[in-house]
Amino acid sequence: METLARRIPVVKTTIAGTNDIGRLCVGNSRALIVPMETTDEEYAHLQKRHPFNIPLLRLYKHVPDLGTRVACNDCVALIDPDLDEEIESIISIVLHVRVYRRTIAGLNNVGSLCVINDSGAVVHHEASNTEIDELSKLLRKPVEVGTVNKGNTEFIADGVATNCWAVFCGSETANYERALLESVFRPIKLELPPY
């Protein structure tokens, strides 16, 4: 983490008293949505330490594991079909995205089963061809099935995080898995100045 923090801003925090940040939050370059259970101290810490001053919204009602139920980039959010319309509207307005209710591999937890950025998506290896075709049309980007950590990670999002310039993956990720992630997510090869 120290090496990473010399190149990009890193904010150490907990959310709702846990370290499961990705499971509980959803965001893109426009905003970050955190759960109702985020403590006042955590919320104030995020507001103070967040390096890019993007809006931070704490939900006003309980939504279990929001990060496992939403996958998004700067244009589109794929959401669990069971999320209520109010939360769908919040996601659309706050993140400035088009929202689609989807399943992947027949399951609702699209945030765990799919990782997307503005270049493409990698989805759970059991996604059907129909789901892949539909997602590719919605995203207007390439969608590939993939694994991480030599296939030992059940959910793709448990082992991959990405944005437009970097891909982070589990340390056990094989070269062929890394090659797929790089070909889909197309991270920008930048020599970043120290932060």
Automatic annotation (TrEMBL):
Domain of life assignment: Eukaryota
Family matches, as Pfam families: eIF-6
GO biological process, one term: cytosolic ribosome assembly
One Gene Ontology MF term: ribosome binding
SMART domains: eIF6 (SM00654)
Keywords: Initiation factor, Protein biosynthesis
InterPro entries (UniProt xref): eIF6
PANTHER family, A to Z: TRANSLATION INITIATION FACTOR 6
Record protein name field: Eukaryotic translation initiation factor 6
Originating species: Chenopodium quinoa
Gene this chain is encoded by: LOC110705290
